[in-house]
Amino acid sequence: MKNLNGKTVLITGAAMGMGKSLSEKLLKEGCRVALVDINAVEMKKTQVELSNIGKCKYYICDISDRKKVYQLAQKVEKELGHVDILVNNAGIVNAKELLNLEDESIEKTVNINLTAMFWTCKAFLPSMVARKSGHVVNFSSAGGILAIPNLTAYSASKFGVIGFSDALRQEMKKHKSNVGVTYVCPNTVNTGMFEGSKMIAGTKILSADDVTKKVIKAIKKNQAMVAVPSMPIKFITPLTKLLLPIKVMDWLNAALGMANANDTWKGRNSE
Known about the structure:
By secondary structure, the chain is an alpha/beta fold. Helix content is 47%, strand content 14%.
């Protein structure tokens, strides 16, 4: 069981939603937190609010720009010290069918949800490896295990997060680095990203707290995966995909309402 007190944590997408919730919990654990986001207005509000709990400092950064990420790493290390825990939480969604997705939106989704993790890990992992201590948390999604219509770019990026995390975890073990890697797969969370979408039969919307409290436990116990809710996402969905023919799986998804779940999507700030 890891003791998080005194650790320095960097969290992307920290201005709101799960990033803000996780930042609050880690501050209460005694961590110093570097809050990273591109939304300056919300970031300043969050920093003021969370400063009442513990030591935190905000940084405005476009994490899809690798040069800015590398500059961010130098600045954070100078001001807060070596980062012990990196949380790649930032993500966006544009729930439209492929032929209605703008090219720029596809690039932006993949760059923020997936490619940015390469830059943040390359920026912050070396010091963890050198000190033989650290942890990386990468946020994927239930949509990274089971793809449904209107989420081509989103699901592709989130499937990629799982592959990236699995490979990275094995690299860290291969070199006995003592750096843990966890990926997080929650169902729909009430952060506004999927505002307007319909819930799928048999599921319920999650709160950010439902997810982030499990992430804290996963960091402490060095768990490779966090699935919320655990049984459907970690076991039932993968097993169903493995056992059922593709045609039957497609029929089942449609019967459960997945085919049209995002037809009414509005999203946060009409992304």
